[in-house]
Automatic annotation (TrEMBL):
Domain Peptidase M20 dimerisation residue range list: 217-372
Organism: Streptomyces gulbargensis
Coiled-coil ranges per UniProt: none
Alphabetized InterPro entries for the sequence: Cyt/Met_Dipeptidase (IPR051458), Peptidase_M20 (IPR002933), Peptidase_M20_dimer (IPR011650)
UniProt-recorded name of the protein: Dipeptidase
Length: 482
C-alpha cells in the first residue's frame, strides 16, 4: 500500500491522569490471577443463544455475571428478563453526584460451535495457555466485559477510593449473537435506568497490541436468507437432467452476479449514499502501512481480493460489502442419490457504511433478487428485522478525545483512528438513549471470533483495563469543559 501523508490533526498529548500510571499498572497486575479465574469459569458456561435447549445455560451465564458484579462491589445488580433470554444490568454511582455517567453495552451469549473445528482445546474448556485464555466467548465478548471489571478493581485498589470516578452502568444482553431481538424493548422499557452521558460499546476489536488506535465507528449490517426452488421434490437426475431447473445452479449464477469485475456490488443504488474516503480519513487509518503479507498471516486468508482501488483497511472499515456466509442444497453426504435437489439456500450478510441505511439496502436487495431469478424457479427471500445502521462517533466529542488520551498514555507511538468492520447496535443505542456512542474492545484479528479455537490475549485485557481506568479518571474534567 502506498504510504499516506501524516494526519493533519494529530491526537492530543496524553493528559496527566489523577493516578500515576505505574501505580495503576501494578494494581492491574495484582488482579490478574483473580480476573482470569473468573473469566475461565464464565467461559465454561455454554451460553449459546442460537440453541433453544441452551436457554438455561444463557440464564446461568447471566446469574454468574451478576455474582461477578456483586463481588466487584456494585450496589445495584439486576436481571432483566425478556420474552427470550435475560440481560444483566448493574450500576455503581460515583461519589461525586455531578460526575458523568457511562453506560457500557456488551453481551454474554456466545456464537455457535462446530466441535470438529476446535483442535487446541474443547470449546468451553476455559484453558489458560501461553498468555491466552481459550474458549468460546473468551474474546467475544465475555473477556471484554471482564476487562471493565478488571479496570474497576484495579482503580479501587490503586486509589483506595470507595467508588469509581464516574457513575458506571452496564447493560449486558443475552441475545446479541441472534440479532439482539429484544434489545429495542429493553431500551424502551428501562430508558430511565439506562440514561447516560456517554455510551461505550465493548464488543469490538483492537488493531494490534503494539499499534495504539481508537475505534471511531462501525459498519452496519443486513442479514438475508435466499432459498431457490426448482421442483416440488428431489428428482432423479437421470430422468430429468437438462429439462428441469436446478436450484443450486441458479443460486450460484445469481450469487456470482453480486459483484462486477472490479469487485463492486451490483445492487441498484447500493453506492448512492456512500462517500469515498477523504485523504484526511485515509491518513488516520491505523493500518495505513498494512501489507497483504501481514493481512494473510493474521487472518489466515490466502489472499486479499476485493473492491479495486482501495487498500485492505479501507475495504474493511470504509467501504460497504456483501458476503455469502453459507450455501446448501442437495445431499453432499449421499452423492449416490444422484438427484436434482428441489431447493438450494444461501445466507448473506451486507455490511454498510455511512451514510447507508439498512432498511433502504434491504429493499434494494429485494428488488435485485426479483430481477435476477430466472424462469422456471420460485424463491423466498427472508430479511429479518434485526438489522443495524452504521454509526460514526462524533470525533470532536470530549469523551472521544479523552479516550484517545487514555489509549496513548504511556505509549511511544501516536494514536491512530480505526473502525470496526463488523456491526454493533451503536446507532440503535444512540437513537434510543440520545447519547454519543464510543467503542473500546480488546479483540484481535487473531482471536478467531465465530471460528474454532477462539481465544483472548491476556495482555490485551490487561492493557484494556489500564486504558479504561485512565479514561474514567479523565472523563469528569473532559466533560466539564464541554
Amino acid at each position: 500500500m502506498t504510504a499516506l501523508p501524516p494526519p493533519p490533526d494529530p491526537a492530543p498529548s496524553p493528559a496527566a491522569p489523577p493516578v500515576p500510571p505505574g501505580a495503576l499498572r501494578a494494581a492491574v497486575r495484582r488482579e490478574t490471577d483473580s480476573v482470569l479465574a473468573d473469566l475461565a469459569e464464565w467461559v465454561r458456561v455454554p451460553s449459546l443463544s442460537c440453541l433453544p435447549d441452551h436457554a438455561v445455560e444463557v440464564t446461568r451465564s447471566a446469574r454468574l455475571l451478576q455474582c461477578f458484579f456483586r463481588g466487584a462491589g456494585f450496589p445495584v445488580v439486576e436481571e432483566w428478563p425478556t420474552e427470550g433470554l435475560p440481560a444483566v444490568y448493574a450500576r455503581w454511582p460515583a461519589a461525586d453526584p455531578d460526575a458523568p455517567t457511562v453506560l457500557v453495552y456488551s453481551h454474554h451469549d456466545v456464537n455457535a460451535v462446530i466441535e470438529e473445528d476446535w483442535r487446541e482445546t474443547a470449546p468451553f474448556a476455559g484453558v489458560l495457555r501461553e498468555g491466552r485464555l481459550h474458549g468460546r466467548g473468551a474474546s467475544d465478548a465475555k473477556g471484554q466485559v471482564m476487562c471493565h471489571l478488571w479496570a474497576l478493581r484495579a482503580w479501587l485498589a490503586a486509589t483506595g477510593d470507595s467508588a469509581p470516578p464516574v457513575t458506571l452502568k452496564f447493560l449486558v444482553e443475552g441475545e446479541e449473537e441472534i440479532g439482539s431481538v429484544h434489545l429495542g424493548e429493553l431500551l424502551e422499557r428501562h430508558a430511565d435506568a439506562l440514561r447516560a452521558d456517554v455510551v461505550m460499546v465493548s464488543d469490538t476489536m483492537l488493531w494490534s497490541l503494539d499499534r495504539p488506535a481508537v475505534c471511531a465507528g462501525v459498519r452496519g449490517s443486513v442479514s438475508a436468507t435466499l432459498t431457490v426452488r426448482g421442483t416440488r421434490a428431489d428428482v432423479h437426475n437421470g430422468a430429468v437432467a437438462g429439462a428441469v431447473g436446478n436450484p443450486l445452479t441458479e443460486l450460484c449464477r445469481v450469487l456470482g452476479s453480486l459483484h462486477d469485475g472490479n469487485g463492486r456490488v451490483t445492487l441498484g443504488g447500493f453506492y448512492d449514499r456512500v462517500e469515498s474516503p477523504t485523504d484526511h480519513e485515509r491518513a488516520r487509518l491505523a493500518g495505513a502501512d498494512l501489507d497483504e503479507r501481514e493481512w494473510t498471516r493474521r487472518t489466515g486468508a490466502l489472499g486479499a481480493p476485493g473492491e479495486a482501488g482501495y487498500g485492505i483497511t479501507e475495504r474493511v472499515w470504509l467501504r460497504p460489502a456483501v458476503e455469502v456466509t453459507s450455501l446448501s442444497g442437495g445431499h453432499p453426504r449421499l452423492p449416490g442419490l444422484g438427484v436434482v435437489p428441489a431447493t438450494a439456500t444461501a445466507g448473506l450478510v451486507l455490511r454498510l457504511v455511512p451514510d447507508q441505511r439498512a432498511d433502504e439496502v434491504a429493499e434494494g436487495l429485494r428488488e435485485w433478487v426479483a430481477a435476477r431469478i430466472g424462469p422456471g424457479f420460485t424463491y423466498e427471500l427472508d430479511l429479518p428485522g434485526t438489522r443495524s445502521d452504521p454509526y460514526t462517533t462524533p470525533a470532536g466529542h470530549p469523551a472521544f478525545r479523552a479516550l484517545e488520551q487514555a489509549v496513548g498514555a504511556g505509549r511511544d507511538r501516536p494514536v491512530a483512528r480505526m473502525r470496526n468492520g463488523g456491526a454493533a447496535p451503536a446507532a440503535q443505542l444512540a437513537r434510543a438513549l440520545g447519547a454519543p456512542v464510543l467503542f473500546y474492545g480488546t479483540g484481535l484479528l487473531e482471536d478467531r471470533w465465530h471460528s474454532g479455537d477462539e481465544r483472548v490475549e491476556v495482555e490485551a485485557l490487561a492493557q484494556g483495563a489500564q486504558t479504561l481506568a485512565t479514561w474514567w479518571s479523565l472523563l469528569p474534567d473532559a466533560l466539564a469543559g464541554d
